[in-house]
Write a structure and sequence with these properties.
Number of domains: 2
Shape: globular
Number of strands: 14
CATH superfamily of the largest domain: Jelly Rolls
CATH architecture of the largest domain: Sandwich
Strand content: 15-25%
Largest sheet: 9 strands, antiparallel
Structural class: alpha+beta
Order of helices and strands: EEHEHEEEEEEEEEEHEHHHHHHHHHH
Radius of gyration: 21 Å
CATH topology of the largest domain: Jelly Rolls
């Protein structure tokens, strides 16, 4: 089936490398891509940092973990890039993600070690042996209700990719039911690469290993996709409903971005999109596992956190930012923020001030 569309805190880098910011790390990785093999592995405490580190997609991450006394978000990511192929292996936390695939890449997304209940990719309820294939520019919206290990294989150069298999048209995605059951070794090799990226990255750059990996994975992808895609097109009925729901959510997100600090009333908002409240609710529930108002509050809380992490050390900044994003009842806002992130907004601001002070002192010492 092909479904078309219109249109942080610090983290620890594995192997003893000192922690650096998400922005600095991404820049370093991009510089290393010139090498035959580029490898990194990191642990993230903020969903924004995880989203920034992902390759071949541009997404926003919103944490949805709500467990008192537990770290609100923690995920790890290992990336191996060789030639046109990039392999990502992640142990991710509860979240929703929204964005799109890069315009020059196709991405194969698949679960590792089963699936958490309620996992959905573009409203498609993925099973433990299913995969989803995205063509360049395709919309990407996922809901992950709990911890989930996943892998992604990305191929840059769409013209070259279409030589391997009859892939979906640009801007589309295809569900691949039973993909992992056809070749169990495909997943075992992904897991092995993830382990090497975290624990023995030097091996991946030795001798002719990069060239061998590129050839091996080109062959594996051609074989796997060539077998899976014909079966995925056997039925197109469910695709129409998924298509409509994802397009509706994409339109709603675009509209919400321009009204993020204003009151949003479900009936008026649904009418502005030309649908009923029930239709809009069902679309958000299918795509993100939550209704419009829950999604909106979650996004606003993350925007507040991002602003506080960047903010200056003014005592009234928390109130200013909360009001900017529509939280008029400051007591309830502080409570919701603490439930979402495990700390009060004032603690986030204090940590940001402390980090900036440390950076300033280090610069002065130099």
């Amino acid at each position: 089936m092909c479904y078309p569309y219109s249109a942080g805190s610090r983290f620890r880098v594995q192997a003893g490398v000192r922690p650096i910011s998400g922005e600095a790390w991404c820049g370093r990785f991009e510089a290393d891509v010139k090498d035959a093999t580029a490898v990194f592995a990191a642990t993230f405490r903020e969903p924004d940092d995880m989203a920034a580190a992902l390759r071949c997609v541009a997404v926003d991450y919103l944490s949805t973990r709500r467990s008192p006394g537990v770290v609100p978000y923690e995920a790890s990511l290992a990336v191996v890039q060789f030639g046109r192929i990039t392999i990502q292996h992640a142990d991710d936390d509860a979240h929703i993600a929204s964005g799109e695939v890069a315009r020059d890449s196709a991405v194969l997304l698949l679960p590792i070690d089963g699936t958490v209940a309620g996992l959905a990719v573009n409203a498609y309820r993925a099973g433990p042996t299913d995969a989803v294939l995205f063509s360049p520019g395709a919309e990407l919206r996922t809901v992950c209700p709990g911890r989930q290990a996943w892998a992604a294989v990305s191929i840059s150069g769409y013209d070259a990719v279409t030589e391997w298999a009859d892939l979906p048209a640009e801007g589309c995605f295809a569900a691949l039911p039973g993909f992992l059951g056809r070749d169990p070794s495909f997943v075992s090799q992904l897991i092995e690469l993830g382990w090497l990226a975290r624990h023995d990255r030097a091996r991946l750059a030795e001798g002719s290993v990069p060239e061998a990996l590129a050839e091996q994975w080109a062959s594996a992808l051609a074989r796997a996709l060539g077998a899976a895609l014909p079966a995925s097109r056997a039925s197109s009925g469910p695709g129409r409903m998924l298509h409509r729901r994802v397009r509706l959510v994409a339109a709603a997100e675009e509209k919400l971005a321009g009204e993020i600090g204003r009151p949003i009333y479900s009936d008026g908002f649904a009418a502005s999109l030309g649908v009923s409240v029930r239709t809009l609710h069902d679309a958000f529930q299918a795509v993100f596992g939550m209704g419009v108002q829950s999604y909106l509050q979650n996004r606003r809380l993350h925007l507040v956190r991002a602003a506080l992490r960047r903010g200056a050390g003014r005592s009234d900044l928390v109130k200013e930012v909360a009001l900017r994003f529509g939280f008029w009842h400051l007591g309830r806002f502080a409570q919701a923020y603490q439930v979402a992130f495990g700390e009060l907004p004032s603690a986030t601001l204090a940590a940001a001030i402390s980090r900036r002070g440390a950076v300033a002192r280090a610069s002065a010492a130099d």
